[in-house]
């Protein structure tokens, strides 16, 4: 599996070189160290295993993640009491680059996050500046102070420090990169929006 993770890293670097939104948000470290993590194949990730992308520019990245899915250390940050059982059944993420990821660095974090159809990622915030980059599918992004929009592949959404934001999927799944460029130890807080 190490080879597939390294192939994924290579594809991410290629994407970064060609995309100003990503490269302007943060630079990718050159000194990443591979870190073998134990698999945690959660139920929600099984829906990703069978989902093939039809978007050419990110298809290679999507396909490598799809093939790696059973071997990934999938996580779910939240408790059911905070976000509901339905959300957890349709959500999962893993850290690819970062302090505890598959490639170790303390300079930034890059997560891969998956949402199944008809899911609502409740309002939340964190200290870290964050950039979402949609690889496949689509989702509606909302954040306090910004216009709501539906993002499709290659589109980005910036969330500033402590800016409350949410995400909703409808009839499509959504696979995204989530990048933190600072405050990597930030905790995520569910927030109420009036």
Furnish the topology, listing elements before pairings.
Layout (H helix, E strand, L loop, with lengths): L1 H17 L1 H6 L7 E2 L11 H4 L9 H10 L11 H4 L1 H4 L2 E8 L4 E2 L4 E7 L3 E7 L4 E8 L1 E5 L2 E6 L4 E4 L5 E5 L4 E7 L8 E2 L4
Parallel strand pairs: 2-3
Antiparallel strand pairs: 1-3, 2-4, 4-11, 5-10, 5-12, 6-9, 6-11, 7-8, 7-10
Helix pairs in contact: 1-4
Walk me through the structure:
With 194 residues, this protein is an alpha+beta fold. It has one domain: Jelly Rolls (Sandwich). The chain has 6 helices and 12 strands. Helix 1 packs antiparallel against helix 4. It is globular and about 45 Å long.
Poorly predicted runs of 5 or more residues: none
The end-to-end distance, rounded to whole angstroms, is 46 Å
- Which percent range describes the beta-strand content? 25-35%
Percentage of residues assigned to helices: 10-25%
Query: What's the story with the biggest beta sheet?
Result: 7 strands, mixed
What characteristics describe this protein?
7-stranded mixed β-sheet, 32% strand, globular, 194 residues, alpha+beta, 23% helix
Entry summary:
By secondary structure, the protein is of the alpha+beta class. It has one domain: Jelly Rolls. It has helices at residues 2-18, 20-25, 46-49, 59-68, 80-83, 85-88, and strands at residues 33-34, 91-98, 103-104, 109-115, 119-125, 130-137, 139-143, 146-151, 156-159, 165-169, 174-180, 189-190.
